[in-house]
Please model this.
Amino acid sequence: MTRRGFIKGLLAVTLAGLFVAAYGFFIEPALRLRVKRWRVRRDDWTAPPLRIAVLSDLHVGEPHVGLKRIEQVVKRTNALAPDLILLLGDYAAGHRMVSQPVPIADLAPVLAGLEAKHGVFAVLGNHDWWDDLAAQRRGGGPNIYAEALRQNGIRVLSNDAVKLEGAGCWLAGVEDQLAIVTGRGRYRGLDDLPATLSQVTDEVPVILMAHEPDIFPNVPDRVALTLSGHTHGGQVRLFGWSPMVPSRFGNRYAYGHVREGQRDLVVSGGIGCSILPVRFGVTPEITVVDLSA
Model:
């Protein structure tokens, strides 16, 4: 290789690296938004077909995810005409590179604009608990994120189950599995899956909301569909594989539709970022699940 050829190659590599960095830090996380659709068919689904819009891991904070971006997300979600809208937690910013925090008191009224035939429901994520220092000191609720959502007409399920009469199914939501920080890298969950499912009193199908997908191996076949977020698809995903996933199961539950035995899980890639404001190959998304027999 000639000296000129070497310099040209080095320049090309440098420019490519700068483009990838700019795309990963500024374009994909802040400017792009897609609708990702999954179809889940189950022989035991006895209710009418159900279209579920899932919003997960908003991690709201300027400059990447401000209120204007959330207004766009709300508008696009409503345009999908979902039967049910589910918010899977982590409304709080998840990284330190935030130029302007957005408090939940400002975010919740925007989310109140979401509309669905069978309602809008939410669970909390780990960052919503970690960000509430008073709740951390108490080792539990009440939680400022849950209270703000409830005050704006969004029902928060905290180890609760509710029957959606018009939809012909139950909706259950477990509390966060990493809610209380007990030490460096150690957490205590507030989730109680058995107590949550004990509230189901008949044989109609059950949909479960759980912020972290790590609960999935413990979910019984009785549950038709589990919906989770938390992983952001790894934030960086190449050829269906993510180098870092915040799950003890690694890539097993990193993203998308997973079927194990008779159990179905859909993990949303979410909207915002954690640790670093970077996304590459995991475009921020509104997740739509069409559930039917």
Summary: The radius of gyration is 20 Å.
